[in-house]
């Protein structure tokens, strides 16, 4: 049996709007539950809000908070096996309760537009984006062919897509992330909906593109479109929201006017979310509740050679890396990049996608051979070493990736992954190896029973902790963190950042921290490099970079970072 | 207070309680064939070569379940006694095919650019031949025999599997976990042994089951063309071939061995799919 029990229309009931307002969209006491394996999971509890024309209501929460389910329910896309109850869901006074499939289809698109997080998966990869938008118009019998064609170009133009004539003919994979997201917004706007639901609309985007998309949504708002914004990112929400609902575990913990929620939160959870946002003001302070980190260094014998070394642990000189594209042209991914990283310090590399920051990381790790320049690790030449001789030194520098899942062998559980990463000198002493693995798990704050789980059975935060434990296993001097916290929820990100700071203090580690997120970079770094198109455009302390940027690109980057105080 | 509502309509289709009928049927079929290999006398009703000349070309009946051939031999018993030979060819050809495929696929994926290039071209050239044509060519060179048949079918089907294995190895080789192992300073042989080989060869278990069924069909095709095991051997393809002459008078001589081949191929394929699904579930 599916969970749907009964259908009843309730238009005739008088319901007072939650905020005592008229409301274009009114939702009162919405409850959603799913039935899985015979048990019922209540995922949304008593959510109520009212949305006025030209207003933005933001639903803020982390994964599993019920924010996306709430949004999907409002457009009738809750899916099978769900039970939905509500006192009211109405659009311009017209109840949506008990609407048929056909009624929903005409409401979706025409009256409510939906913008999803990742345009690459939301758009049909085989269809030019112009046709995608045309489809939305055609489905709702909008105009004739030539009128639709003109409308598609107008729409693309209105969302700031340059050269709409040509862009309309391109497929999603031929467009950049920003243009793709704009095309998706254009298709959501096609039928002039009164309400736009934007579910994490900027999460996958670079800072400057994010700023453009946010200003586009703000523009729509000023033209009278109502916006429901779903996000885990409070600084994004601060740009747009008039009202904020903070959700956790399906409950609304706090709801109120945006300025009040952001600056005078009533609920501890809201406060912890706000405190968890890293920025230059949070430098040196923990982002979450204090956690004691006890980590003892276990330097393997090979590290003894470097005990007296006190020069820079990692030094790159004039690195150049070129790639030959399939059509034969040569692109320069890394162009004359130099840096030094001192013991116990953090060097932040910030840049957008395609800036060459990840290629720089691979060069630093000697996973890729530079076409020019050199890297030295602990004073030894690192780039020209032959791989067999390099292996002995590899444990001095380790890496944590953005997506730990793909960096784990799916056949191995966490314990096996960590056992495999221990230095060879522990070989043969099974008891010592297992003890060291338990110690590593403790250092990254994981209980021992997590070690038995396989990567797919771990949460995002646990996976990243295992990845950090693996990086710590050979007792390295340097850890390269490549977007290591970018895929995590704010509070999990805060825990991981606090953990990294704690480990650095205890073990004297140096970090090469690579991120597109300026807030994270300014929270952690002692020195910052700003990269664009493979080259370093500016370098300095976080204060210099974020408060007195000199290069126009840095200025643009810094100004496009959304902040809480807006 | 609260009224129930749905605006759903998008109900998932009701799930049929999953009785794995296909699985049960294919396991039963495979068990039956296993008995026919291990001890054909147990389930055969007559000898495979016992002549009943006065009973030639009898239609299927209670005495002769699958009918009799032109010499009055019991077709059912001949099918039972032919099982071991047909399965031997099927398994043997699979063995040859996959060994060759693993060899070629690994070289194509792991060796230096020159060797990989050469092997890739070889695979592509072999792949461009239809399987049967390649097999026919080998039989023409080596002459018909059971061993030739095994090698002909094995070599004929190898290029397709070689490409699958090459792809598997390449994707394991370029995976994040191999890069992580490199940055931990693990040696190449260790990475090969611990990560690349197990992850690349895991889908092979399912491929083996699929390949056995297909190899039997290919082998039977060769015998049917008179290029495999020759009559009076009761190998299934040979049975088909000898029945061909009587196709207008005695349909059972061709139809029944054909159905038996289909049954085994289906059972092996179904089983292979179940194994594959079970392995995929294991990964989650």
From TrEMBL, chain A:
Residue ranges constituting the ABC transporter domain according to the UniProt record: 25-274, 314-558
Gene Ontology MF terms: ATP binding; ATP hydrolysis activity
SUPFAM superfamilies: P-loop containing nucleoside triphosphate hydrolases
An annotated GO BP: transmembrane transport
InterPro entries, per the entry: AAA+_ATPase, ABC_transp_ATP-bind, ABC_transporter-like_ATP-bd, ABC_transporter-like_CS, Oligopep_ABC_C, P-loop_NTPase
Keyword vocabulary terms for this entry: ATP-binding, Nucleotide-binding, Transport
Matches recorded under CDD domains: ABC_NikE_OppD_transporters (cd03257)
Superkingdom of origin: Bacteria
Family per record: Belongs to the ABC transporter superfamily.
Protein name: ABC transporter ATP-binding protein
Species for this entry: Lacisediminihabitans profunda
Automatic annotation (TrEMBL), chain B:
ABC transmembrane type-1 domain ranges (all copies): 83-272
Assigned keywords, A-Z: Cell membrane, Membrane, Transmembrane, Transmembrane helix, Transport
Protein topology in the membrane: Multi-pass membrane protein
One of the record's GO cellular component terms: plasma membrane
InterPro entries cross-referenced by the UniProt entry: BP-dependent_transpt_permease, MetI-like, MetI-like_sf
CDD domains: TM_PBP2
Compartments, as annotated in UniProt: Cell membrane
Membrane-spanning ranges: 21-43, 87-110, 122-140, 146-165, 204-230, 250-275
One of the Pfam families matching this protein, by short name: BPD_transp_1
Main subcellular location: membrane
GO biological process: transmembrane transport
PANTHER family: OLIGOPEPTIDE TRANSPORT SYSTEM PERMEASE PROTEIN APPC, PEPTIDE ABC TRANSPORTER PERMEASE PROTEIN
Family recorded in the similarity comment: Belongs to the binding-protein-dependent transport system permease family.
Full protein name: ABC transporter permease
Organism: Lacisediminihabitans profunda
């Amino acid at each position: 049996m599916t969970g749907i029990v009964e259908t009843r229309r309730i238009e005739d009931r008088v319901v007072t709007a939650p905020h005592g307002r008229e409301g274009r969209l009114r939702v009162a006491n919405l409850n959603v539950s799913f039935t899985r394996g015979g048990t019922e999971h209540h995922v949304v509890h008593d959510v109520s809000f009212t949305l006025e024309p030209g207003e933005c209501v933001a639903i803020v929460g982390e994964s599993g908070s019920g924010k996306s389910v709430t949004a999907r329910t409002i457009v009738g896309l809750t899916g099978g096996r769900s039970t939905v109850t509500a006192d009211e869901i109405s659009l311009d006074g017209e109840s949506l309760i008990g609407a048929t499939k056909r009624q929903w289809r005409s409401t979706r698109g025409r009256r409510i537009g939906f913008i999803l997080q990742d345009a690459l998966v939301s758009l049909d990869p085989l269809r030019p984006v112009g046709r995608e938008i045309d489809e939305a118009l055609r489905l709702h019998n909008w105009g004739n062919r030539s009128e639709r064609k003109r409308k598609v170009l107008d729409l693309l133009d209105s969302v700031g897509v340059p050269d709409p004539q040509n862009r309309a003919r391109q497929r999603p994979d031929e467009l950049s992330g920003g243009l793709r997201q704009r095309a998706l917004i254009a298709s959501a706007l096609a039928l002039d909906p009164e309400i736009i639901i934007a579910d994490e609309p900027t999460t996958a985007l670079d800072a400057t593109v994010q700023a453009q998309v946010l200003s586009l949504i703000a523009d729509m708002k000023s033209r009278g479109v109502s916006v429901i914004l779903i996000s885990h990112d409070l600084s994004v929400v601060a740009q747009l929201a008039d009202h904020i609902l903070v959700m956790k575990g399906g409950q609304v913990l706090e709801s109120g006017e945006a300025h009040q929620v952001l600056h005078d939160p009533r609920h501890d959870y809201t406060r912890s979310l706000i405190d968890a946002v890293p920025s230059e003001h949070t430098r040196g302070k923990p982002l979450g509740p204090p956690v004691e980190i006890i980590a003892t260094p276990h330097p393997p014998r090979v590290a003894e050679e470097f005990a007296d070394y006190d020069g820079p642990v990692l030094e790159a000189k004039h690195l150049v890396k070129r790639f030959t594209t399939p059509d034969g042209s040569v692109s320069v991914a890394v162009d004359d990049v130099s840096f030094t990283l001192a013991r116990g310090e953090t060097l932040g590399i910030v840049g957008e996608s395609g800036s060459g920051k990840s290629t720089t990381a691979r060069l630093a790790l000697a996973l890729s051979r530079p076409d020019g320049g050199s890297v030295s690790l602990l004073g030894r030449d690192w780039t020209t070493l032959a791989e067999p001789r390099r292996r002995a030194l590899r444990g001095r520098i380790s890496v944590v990736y953005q997506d730990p899942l793909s960096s784990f062998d799916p056949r191995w559980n966490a314990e096996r992954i960590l056992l495999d990463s221990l230095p060879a000198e522990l070989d043969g002493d099974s008891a010592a190896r297992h003890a060291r693995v338990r110690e590593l798990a403790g250092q990254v704050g994981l209980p021992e029973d997590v070690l038995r789980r396989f990567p797919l059975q771990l949460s995002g935060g646990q996976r990243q902790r295992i990845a950090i434990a693996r990086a710590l296993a050979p007792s390295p001097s340097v850890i390269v963190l490549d977007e290591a916290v970018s895929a995590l929820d704010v509070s999990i990100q805060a825990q991981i950042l606090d953990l990294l700071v704690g480990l650095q203090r205890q073990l004297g580690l140096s970090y090469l921290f690579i991120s597109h997120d300026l807030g994270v970079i300014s929270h952690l770094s002692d020195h910052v490099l700003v990269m664009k198109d493979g080259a370093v455009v500016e370098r300095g302390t976080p204060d210099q970079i974020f408060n007195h940027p000199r290069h126009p690109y840095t200025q643009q980057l810094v100004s496009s970072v959304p902040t809480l105080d807006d | 207070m609260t009224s129930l509502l749905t605006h759903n309509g998008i109900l998932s289709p009701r799930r049929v309680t999953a009785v794995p009928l296909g699985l049960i049927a294919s396991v039963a079929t495979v068990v039956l064939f296993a008995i026919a290999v291990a001890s054909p006398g147990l389930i055969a009703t007559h000898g495979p070569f016992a002549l009943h000349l006065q009973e030639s070309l009898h239609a299927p009946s209670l005495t002769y379940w699958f009918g009799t051939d032109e010499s009055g031999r019991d077709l059912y018993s001949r099918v039972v006694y032919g099982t071991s030979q047909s399965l031997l060819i099927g398994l043997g050809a699979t063995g040859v095919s996959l060994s060759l495929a693993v060899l070629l696929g690994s070289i194509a994926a792991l060796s230096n650019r020159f060797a990989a290039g050469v092997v890739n071209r070889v695979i592509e050239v072999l792949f461009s031949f239809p399987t049967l044509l390649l097999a026919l060519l080998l039989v023409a060179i080596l002459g018909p025999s059971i061993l030739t048949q095994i090698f002909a079918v094995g070599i004929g089907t190898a290029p397709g599997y070689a490409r699958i294995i090459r792809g598997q190895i390449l994707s394991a080789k370029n995976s994040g976990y191999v890069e992580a192992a490199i940055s931990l300073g693990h040696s190449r042989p260790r990475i090969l042994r611990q990560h690349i080989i197990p992850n690349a060869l895991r889908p092979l278990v399912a491929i083996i089951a699929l390949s056995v069924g297909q190899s039997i069909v290919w082998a039977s095709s060769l015998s049917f063309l008179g290029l495999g095991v020759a009559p009076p051997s009761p190998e299934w393809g040979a049975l088909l071939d000898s029945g061909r002459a009587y196709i207008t008078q005695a349909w059972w001589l061709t139809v029944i061995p054909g159905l038996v081949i289909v049954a085994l191929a289906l059972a092996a394929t179904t089983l292979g799919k179940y194994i594959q699904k079970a392995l995929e579930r294991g990964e989650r």
